[in-house]
């Protein structure tokens, strides 16, 4: 499915529109937009939008101290650059490097000359990693000093026909001409990374940071300056996605991947808005008597023809912060509606688990939004369990996540640690966070009855959970022998195809009533299990 340019543009904030304008040949509009906002960058490919979804590692263009910081004389003056270009000032006020507009003009001239001479050109885009954190921890004055130091290092690499520029924020660009072959670009990129690392060490010795570099070569990767900048930027985003602190040279598959991702994001967000994405509920059963306990709400994309798409089909959307937040809000709305309807129909109360992503938790207002929604529907917050993965706890903005989880607990919402045993610091997390429930990953359940190592791990996990007063849920339970083994080991709850697939709301209600968690309502009131204080 191919989408129009306007459809794709509609899902992005101004920084993201630059890439999309370039993808669709709107270079002139892009340049005009850049003038208005010289500090913007592109949306990140690491799952966090320049949010995802804020969170962009950008540094606003601040004047700094003209005597010590700017040092414009670090770059040798040229007659052309001393003139005022048609787009505005030729020099960045902080670093003394060329501005983005001047860089584009000069690169255009270099490309035109290279067409006649047949010489290769290398265009480098470099972005600092975690620069926003550096500013927050050490202050903008230190951040400015790092930028100036990097600028001086870049100038040391330049020959007469080369050019360096600050693209705004924490991004720099270099144009290198007169290369003997395109392969010369790789060692130059390594020098850029070394210069950046050394600059950070000198100005912020206790802060660990790196840079990522994207490279585009003329004529292999573009016939004009706009194509080269765009493709270098695509390569830069790939470098950040692949782990940062590295260099990526543009290739055509990178562009195809980007376009496919943008199309999927647009289609997914539209599907959420029209209600095609909805919660399906997989029953969670109490293993001691195989009676209903609650559900886990799972996102399903139901196409108009009835075909159901699972999260694996829209993984790119789940990794995009803006889409993740949109989906989370939508799921909460639909889940609270179903819980209210079930309550009105006098269905016994059930626990409801919902998966929550890092972008949602880092917004800061997540507990308030959940509380307002459930209170408006008159649904007890004690019915809700928030499931998080250990990767959320390892996030660089961990303090905000910690505060949000504590606020959720104060509201009476339970916290579950999903995919337990597959992360990096499970025991530390159990000690540091008030977790009500751990979910044992299906990878330990699938061979539970035939693999002695899996059996030993599950037994030890259940014993640890009991000693800490934490409930346990086994995921991926599919066979009767697995059920018997988990019952003998004392696991509290289970979910999987042995009991049921995920069901639409009406079928889930019928399932719960059929397997309700009490025998006689008038004699045995249903009580939700909770962790003792």
Number of helices in the DSSP assignment:
22
Q: Name the average pLDDT.
A: 80
The major β-sheet equals:
8 strands, mixed, barrel
Distance separating the two termini? 53 Å
Number of strands: 14
Helix/sheet category: alpha/beta
Assembly type of the chains comes to single chain
- Shape annotation: elongated
β-strand percent reads 15-25%
Strand order of the largest sheet: 6-7-9-10-11-12-13-14
Q: What fraction, in percent, of the residue positions are helical?
A: 40-55%
Calculate Rg over CA atoms.
28 Å
Identify low-pLDDT runs.
1-5, 7-87, 518-533
How would you characterize this protein structure?
The chain has 533 residues and is α/β, with parallel strands linked by helices. The protein is built from 22 helices and 14 strands. The chain has helices at 5-9, 14-23, 27-36, 66-70, 79-82, 100-117, 131-138, 140-155, 185-203, 225-241, 252-274, 315-318, 321-344, 358-362, 366-377, 390-393, 398-410, 426-432, 442-445, 452-468, 480-489, 505-514; strands at residues 121-128, 163-168, 171-176, 211-218, 247-249, 277-286, 291-302, 308-309, 351-355, 384-388, 414-420, 437-440, 471-474, 493-494. The strands form two sheets. Strands 6-7-9-10-11-12-13-14 form an eight-stranded mixed β-barrel, surrounded by five helices. A five-stranded mixed β-sheet has the order 2-3-1-4-5, sandwiched between helices. α7 (131-138) crosses α8 and α8 runs antiparallel to α9 (185-203). The longest helix is centred in the middle third of the chain and has 24 residues, at 321-344. The two termini are 53 Å apart. 44% of the residues are buried. Mean pLDDT is 80; it is low at 1-5, 7-87 and 518-533.
